[in-house]
Design a protein that fits this description.
Layout (H helix, E strand, L loop, with lengths): L14 H4 L7 E2 L6 E2 L2 E5 L3 H13 L3 E5 L2 H10 L4 E5 L8 H10 L6 E5 L4 H10 L3 E4 L4 H16 L6 E4 L2 E4 L4 E4 L2 E3 L3 H12 L5 E2 H7 L11 H13 L8 E4 L3 E4 L11
Parallel strand pairs: 3-4, 3-5, 5-6, 6-7
Antiparallel strand pairs: 1-2, 8-9, 9-10, 10-11, 12-14, 13-14
């Protein structure tokens, strides 16, 4: 429901579309193959839905349109989409926020842009808290909608940080903040865990004392103490003692490295 978006100047069709092809294709960043983005529009206003769908198809997208919440939730959950464009107010027993909450409750993390004639700050906050990734109020210009969709697609293509890291038989889980070596749980103090996690994130690389002070201790200066040496020694006692091979390496005059390939590091102590 809601008002029709403000018309924007017509965007020239892509060369492929002008030549009569049913759609053009988009080059997905960082990949060598052509890829067509998939958008699901859940919108009961037929004019608004057609306006959006035609604009996206001219850009080379595959677009599917649902006019009610029941059909929309079925397609949103049952298929994979790059972005879902979701109207806030819908018929059919589901409004936009209910669809959004259902999506998130079943583990679907598809980016969702909510469209709404409800422009009050409280309504935008409700949408964001329900799990939407962006909120655009009506009326809107297609150029703004397109830019927001591109930003959501780019954001979704950024790899998520690893939840678990492994080097040899050492495993560190960043979610549970736990570590184990050869299946044996390691009991680590919070600072020791931060130190180990940082070394794991830079496995097989040399990390300097300055890097450790800034990232693990949040120091922006050298306190001229042996705090790093003390914690490295304690960590070695838990990570390496009783296990082979030793993983925490000292690089003379430079810093440390966590690696099961010490031969690749210069001047390992």
């Amino acid at each position: 429901m809601g008002s029709v978006p403000t018309p924007s100047p017509a965007t020239p069709a892509a060369p492929e579309a002008q030549a009569g092809a049913p759609y053009s294709v988009c080059l997905s960043p960082g990949k060598d193959r052509l890829r067509m983005y998939r958008y699901l529009i859940i919108e009961d206003d037929a004019l608004n839905a057609r306006y959006i769908a035609e604009g996206l198809r001219q850009q080379g997208a595959h677009v599917s349109v649902c006019a009610d919440g029941v059909q929309g939730i079925a397609q949103a959950v049952g298929e994979n989409w790059d972005v879902i464009i979701l109207d806030r107010m819908l018929p059919g027993g589901f409004d936009g926020l209910q669809i959004l909450q259902t999506l998130r409750s079943v583990g679907k993390q598809t980016p969702v842009l909510v469209l709404s004639a409800l422009s009050a700050t409280d309504e935008r906050v409700r949408g964001l808290k329900a799990g939407c990734d962006d909120y655009l109020t009506k009326p809107f210009a297609f150029s703004e909608l397109s830019a927001r969709l591109e930003a959501l697609v780019r954001r979704a293509q950024i790899p998520a940080p690893a939840r678990e890291m492994r080097v040899a038989d050492l495993r560190v889980n960043l979610i549970t903040r736990s570590a184990e070596r050869a299946g044996v749980a390691l009991t680590l103090q919070p600072r020791e865990f931060r130190l180990l996690a940082f070394l794991m994130q830079h496995a097989h690389q040399i990390v300097t004392r300055t890097m450790l002070l800034e990232s693990v201790w949040d120091y922006r200066f050298d306190p001229q103490t042996n705090v790093i040496d003390v914690h490295i020694s304690r960590l070695r006692g838990k990570v390496d003692k009783g296990f082979e091979p030793a993983l925490i390496q000292t690089v003379r005059g430079v810093g440390y490295s966590l690696s099961d390939r010490p031969q690749d590091l210069p001047e390992v102590a």
